[in-house]
Amino acid sequence: MMHTNPHVNPVIVASENGRAGATVAMELLRRGGCAIDAAELAARVTEDDPQEHSVGFSGLPNLLGQVELDASLMNGRTLETGAVAGVQDYGNVISLARAVMDELPHVLLVGRGAERFAGEMGQKPADQRTFASLDFWRTRFTETGLELTGAELRHIVTRLTLPLHLEDRVPHGTVNYLVRDAHGDLASAVSTSGHAWKYPGRVGDSPIIGAGNYCDNRYGAVACTGTGELAIRVSTARSLILYLKMGMSLEEAGQECLAEIVQLKPRVGQYMNFVAMTPDGQHRGFSTMAGKKYLYYTGEMAEPSLGERETRR
Ligand code: ASP
């Protein structure tokens, strides 16, 4: 049943590419919709956008030119969660993650099993590649003169992407949504195609609960973008929530997570961003790189706004 509590102001915090999804999701929240529905809806809007090449339809292809998608979501009221990874031929992986949460006694499905489950849930398979995404994928082979035949993929992945890493030019991206609804419940959603030219089967932080996504009504919500391997190695999302639980402020908890990532000695081109929100609606963005922004939108605002992400002090 939908009912609004006028004392709780809805809030959406997102990665910078979350404007369209946040706008649609805020309409739902203003009508009394719940946080988990709003988080899923927001991510779907981003997944369906053919101009957003890091998420869903028209995502960045892997080394073999296949779009493999990852997503997760978490309900802060119940701590229920669902995730999928390495999914081909289905674009709305956030809804597949939602179905894993709602319909199965599991939290994470990968590859063929996830695709089979999508069929059982009535999703229709469709090629998620577009002319633009394939053209982009091919360009790197033309630039380097590398071919897929005759060499092991592990050598190609390095030769193809290392020079781009050194120049910080490996395309990747993710969308994050943290939502507080009018009842005060929290939810989080994350969706991505991962890194361009990734080794087939590579999974980043986005579908790993505790690494790229975590949400608990009592303490807050966190989601990550950037080099997922870093967030996996130090469990960034759950760590930040745990620091809040142990009594740190949002600022202190975020700074502690930045310090942990920096201690990993990220290689050139590797970086991490995360957004965080507390149950009272405070929010902040953090990044290991200067100049990054995040998006926030509260029920009192006419439209979403961008804030600066903090770097390590
Ligand atoms: N975190 C994502 C991943 O590692 C990519 C990104 O956000 O840029 O798959």
Descriptive terms for the model:
alpha+beta; four-stranded antiparallel β-sheet; 9 helices; globular; binds aspartic acid
Compact summary:
The chain has 313 residues and is of the alpha+beta class. Helices cover 34% and strands 23% of the residues.
What percent of residues are in strands? 15-25%
Uncertain spans: none
The structural class is alpha+beta
Give the H and E element order.
EHHEEHEHHHEEEEHHHEEEE
- By DSSP, the count of extended strands is 12
Percent helix range: 25-40%
- Quaternary: single chain
User: What is the rounded Rg?
Assistant: 19 Å
The main pleated sheet reads as: 8 strands, mixed
Bound molecules: aspartic acid
Strand order of the largest sheet: 4-3-2-6-5-1-11-12
Distance between the termini: 45 Å
Categorize the overall geometry: globular
Number of helices: 9
Mean pLDDT: 94
Task: Describe the structure in your own words.
The chain is an alpha+beta fold and 313 residues long. The chain has a domain at 11-216. 34% of the residues lie in helices and 23% in strands. The protein has nine helices and twelve strands. The chain has an eight-stranded mixed sheet. The longest helix is centred in the N-terminal third of the chain and has 14 residues, at 35-48. The N and C termini lie far apart (45 Å). Bound molecules: aspartic acid. Aspartic acid binds next to strand 5, strand 6 and strand 8. Aspartic acid binds at residues 172-174, 192, 194-195, 204-206, 225-228.
